[in-house]
Design a protein that fits this description.
Fumarate Reductase Cytochrome B subunit, mainly alpha, two-stranded antiparallel sheet, about 240 residues, 9 helices
Length: about 240
């Protein structure tokens, strides 16, 4: 097809992402950004010389405070998302993330062939997350849990509140605070890499498919070809 040919499709407006999912997404993005930025300062604080009294220059304490607040936001936001995986619509369901049947793996392989290996074949249509994206999110959720455990394990030594104290055992498992701190910092790079790939793929699919991938996380709606929706209904009967 030449660039001057126009293909007409009848698009259906499909409500995919419910408000709690969209709020979770943006709160998660904000908290991870705050955690990464403040985490860099905490891991390698710059040496600053000022003439004022230290009590007036408590900037590093503020950075740590922001890090801890973002950590709590990240944790409780994640807990709400897990809950919504059981009570939300079918696009938010945990079944989209955990491989539970043979079809899930077949769809993952189809996406890998088309999107990654760039092989010829039939396009895999997914209104919500495709199987590969869902599985990657599942692995990301596991990384979330690991980062929460290691982070609050470090925080337990400087907090008297009962919740961080639940993780006081973690440093002993890693051989002390220093190795745990290195592991926690190294794991941060997974989130940075994930964010880069995630943003790239969102823009890529929005450009290639034209289904409102970017705007859907603002309003919740996607635009899917009518014949594709009918095919999905038939496929999942």
């Amino acid at each position: 097809m030449s660039e001057h040919q126009i293909v007409h499709h009848k698009l259906l407006r499909v409500f995919v992402w419910e408000l709690p999912v969209r709020v979770y997404h943006w709160l998660n993005a904000a908290s991870i950004t705050a955690l990464v930025v403040t985490g860099f300062f905490i891991s390698n604080p710059p040496a600053l010389q000022v003439s004022d009294e230290a009590v007036f220059r408590f900037w590093f304490g503020k950075i740590r405070f922001i890090h801890f607040v973002a950590a709590y936001l990240f944790l409780f936001n994640f807990i709400i998302r897990i809950y919504w995986g059981f009570v939300g619509n079918k696009y938010a369901s945990w079944k989209n993330f955990v491989p539970t049947n043979r079809r899930f793996f077949q769809e993952m392989w189809q996406v890998i062939k088309m999107d990654i290996l760039q092989l010829k074949g039939k396009e895999h249509i997914a209104v919500g997350h495709n199987a590969l994206a869902g599985f990657i999110y599942f692995l990301t959720f596991i990384a979330f849990v690991v980062q929460v455990i290691t982070g609050f394990g470090l925080y337990a030594a400087t907090s008297e509140w009962w919740f961080p104290q639940l993780f006081a055992w973690v440093p002993g498992v890693f051989g002390g605070d220093a190795p745990l701190r290195h592991f926690h910092h190294a794991a941060m790079w997974f989130f940075i890499l994930f964010a880069v790939v995630h943003v790239y793929l969102v823009f890529y699919h929005d450009y290639v498919e034209g289904r409102g991938e970017i705007s859907s996380m603002g309003g919740g709606w996607k635009f899917i070809e009518e014949d594709a929706v009918e095919e999905l209904k038939t496929h999942h009967k």
